[in-house]
Structure prediction request, 201 residues.
Amino acid sequence: MLRIAFINLKPGTGKTTSAVWLAYAFHRRGLSVALADADPGASALEWSDQADGFPFKIGGLPVRDFHRRADEFATDVVIGDIPQIEDHAPIARSAMRWANVLVVPVAPTGIELDRMAPLGDVLEEMEDVMRPGSRTCVLLNRVVSGAASGPSARRVLTGRGYDVLSTAVPRLEVFAQSFGAEPETNTAYDQLATELLEVAR
Prediction:
């Protein structure tokens, strides 16, 4: 089972959008997929309701024992839409124990790069209880095409020792305005699905 958790210290970093788009990308490859909405705000569940349901499993799991219960979905891929650590630390830390791939969406802005230092502290604290062999990867998100900020952020994060995925999600209206709609095909999230399957090998 591929266990992916989207995590960040703060809200508004694109965790839900990325989780839903990635779930569709895996589903369209013929994999059995489940999306575990661990956020008490239930954004992914609301998205599913507005879209008249997702074509894969989705369930609410905003619980402190997420790491014990998420595998009950019993699918090829389980994606956790995890709430921000600063407000929901017990849920987020439980999800971090469960995942074999942690994905941290980060926009190439100064404030989001600054947030990576305290997140690094959390990851270090959790290291002994995380799943053996798990990987933590940074997903550059909302990247402006042709701007220097994306490559610059990649250099900064790589220099700090983070594993930055080669896939970067561009800042596009198709992503920003997609809540409640069915995601399109042939986007950066299809590339991300390919890369995460390789990462998890």
Summary: The mean pLDDT is 96. Helices lie at 15-27, 43-50, 66-69, 89-98, 110-126, 149-159, 173-176, 188-199.
